[in-house]
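Please predict the structure of the following assembly.
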Amino acid sequence: MVDNLTVPSPETEIPEEVSGLRMTRQRREVYRILLQDRDHPTANDVFLRVKDALPSISLATVYNCLEALVQHGIVRQVNFERESSRFCPNVAEHGHFHDRSTGVIHDITFKPGVNLSDFLDLPAGAVITDIELTLRGQLGSI
Amino acid sequence: MVDNLTVPSPETEIPEEVSGLRMTRQRREVYRILLQDRDHPTANDVFLRVKDALPSISLATVYNCLEALVQHGIVRQVNFERESSRFCPNVAEHGHFHDRSTGVIHDITFKPGVNLSDFLDLPAGAVITDIELTLRGQLGSI
DNA sequence: ACCAATATCAAGAACTATTCTAAATTGGTT
DNA sequence: AACCAATTTAGAATAGTTCTTGATATTGGT
């Protein structure tokens, strides 16, 4: 079941404006691609996919669109090590699990009601505004 | 109190060989610099600092040395977003807290006895081998 | 101690992901 | 339809890092 409040389905009509960002043809297509396959594509992946609908789009435009979407909180930019940035339309707070054997990246959510200070020794008075969590490993050969 | 088992003090004699890595003059100096100021310097920071002791060292050599140290588990490479990699001699499992107002990066440790699955919804059968945690925020203006 | 084999270093070129620049295009508004 | 601002495009520029090559140093076997 998909939470349509935070992540619209790819079939949903994307409106003229989302979170104060005017949806141009390019931005709409880029966003639609992100909604279509939630596989955390890179800018270049998006570029290649979006060409089907907009053959004349440029890579710079894809970067522009992704930046606009990220800055308006519609899309999240995720960095793993020094690899190319990846993008996902799930803007709810979540971390990532990188399966080393398949390369697949899974979103992982925090259990409800858990507090950071429950399991971390934080500096006194630290106010956390942003969490970035990446796990690596394998999806068990049980 | 510093844990001399995982992080030697900068005054400690660095032996001929550490974890199977032969300590050349350059590697020893690079490592010493990391032990000296635990402020998560970039490769270029290290380069500038190490020049005092080895004026003829090249940036490429600093990269080589850092890579060797990282690959032998003596030093940890830390990436924040798409910034330059940073390096720290603390190879014990820990996360980072990035103070937005001062730019200072603090190491944060996990409370003992805590299990990942206590606060995360992990995919069934996931075996975690590596954790990367970065928090951002401010050190409270109380 | 000597020599060959091996590892390391230095310098700069090359590479990759991303950003910048400037000109062209688009879209909404008078 | 003309105007203006925003957007797009293509290619150049940039930053960080890696690669290549030849020089230098170190090790192990004699």
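The radius of gyration of chain B is 17 Å. Chain B has two domains: 17-88, 95-137.
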